[in-house]
Write a structure and sequence with these properties.
It holds the Pfam family ParE_toxin. The protein starts with a strand and ends in a 14-residue tail after the last strand. The chain is α+β, with helices and mostly antiparallel strands. The chain is built from 2 helices and 4 strands; from the N terminus they run E-H-H-E-E-E.
Length: 102
């Protein structure tokens, strides 16, 4: 049984920005990023504990996309899942940690 997934507003905004950037580079590429993100969210919702913790001692888990240089950071506490960030894998590491997990 999958758990409900909440995408933070700031995470959605950064995804929208990335989609726009890829779409400007090549028509359809942004749509492919959205598809990869949807697959990631489905996998996370199905088995959130299957994905490793970001670092020992943190509640955050990560799902690394294969084709695009993005990492989906999320928490899976309680009955739901919260997507905290759709972070570029090579830019500003840890910037999203300032976000509250609420």
């Amino acid at each position: 049984m999958t758990r409900p997934v909440l995408v933070r507003v700031d995470a959605q905004a950064e995804l929208n920005e990335a989609v726009d950037w890829y779409e400007r580079r090549r028509a359809g590429l942004g749509v492919e990023l959205v598809s990869a993100i949807e697959e990631a969210i489905d996998a996370i919702a199905e088995a959130p504990q299957a994905w490793p913790r970001w670092q020992a001692g943190y509640l955050y888990r990560k799902y690394v996309l294969r084709r695009f240089p993005f990492v989906v950071f999320f928490t899976a506490e309680g009955a739901g899942i919260q997507i905290v960030a759709f972070a570029h894998a090579k830019r500003r590491p840890g910037y999203w940690m300032r976000r509250s997990s609420q």
